[in-house]
Structure formats: structure tokens, C-alpha cells
Amino acid sequence: MSAVRSKPWVRYAVLGLLVLVVLAPVFGWAAGAVGYAEPLENAAEATGAADAATTINPGVLPDYSVPGLAGSAGTFVSALVGTTLTLGVGIGVGRLLDG
User: Fold this and answer.
1) How far is 27 from 36, CA to CA, in rounded Å?
2) Sign of dihedral through CA atoms 55, 57, 61, 64?
3) pLDDT, tens digit, 9 for 90 and up, residues 32-63
4) Domain limits of the chain?
5) Which residues contact 81 (CB under 8 A, 6 or more apart)?
6) CB 24 within 8 A of CB 78
7) Whole-prediction pTM value?
8) DSSP assignment of 21-50, as one string?
9) Quick check: 66 and 78 in contact, CB under 8 A?
């Protein structure tokens, strides 16, 4: 693990991810301020498919939030969890392929 930390590009990549995680609530607020909606949701509403939709599995972090945490705190925790899980899977797969 220390070999990974000693590479400068790894430190810059982790710092970049951390900056994006910290800014995630700002992006969430901005999306709400301009009325952004997911294109797939717009298409479902335009075709009438949204009315017939049934949620079977709402997901681990539905709508990029954490149940019980409102607003920016939920978005921040969601970004932190999602980034950590993705990074962990990526590192795990990389180690499997490397060795």
C-alpha cells in the first residue's frame, strides 16, 4: 500500500476525488436551482411510462441521498460512500489483475 501512496499521481487523483466529494452538495443545490431533471426521467414522463412505473428496489442511495439525512448532508455522505465503494472495487479489481 505504501508503494501506491508514494506515486505522485495517486495522491493527485485522491485529492481530486476528495474535492469532487466536498463539492457534491454544491452541484446538487445547483441542479435544483436550475430545475435539472435526469433525461431518462424526462423521457419516461413524456411517453407516459412514469405513471406505470413501480419501484421494486429504490437502491442503496436513492436520488443521490441518504435516507434520514436531508439536503447537503445526505448528498455529501452519498458522494463519500459512492466514491469510496467505486475506488475500493477499482483497487480490488486492479490487484486481482496485477497479481
Assistant:
1) 11
2) negative
3) 899 998 898 899 999 998 888 888 877 778 87
4) 2-37+64-98
5) 61, 66
6) yes
7) 0.71
8) HHHHHHHHHHHHHHT---HHHHHHHHHTHH
9) yes
What cell does 88 get? 475500493
Q: Give residue 19's pLDDT.
A: 94
* CB 32 within 8 Å of CB 91: no
Give the type of residue at 74: G
Q: Running DSSP on this structure, what letter comes out for residue 68?
A: T
Contact assessment for residue 66 and residue 77, using Cβ atoms and an 8 Å cutoff = yes
Q: Which three cell numbers stand for residue 27?
A: 452541484
Q: For cell 475506488, what's the residue?
A: 87
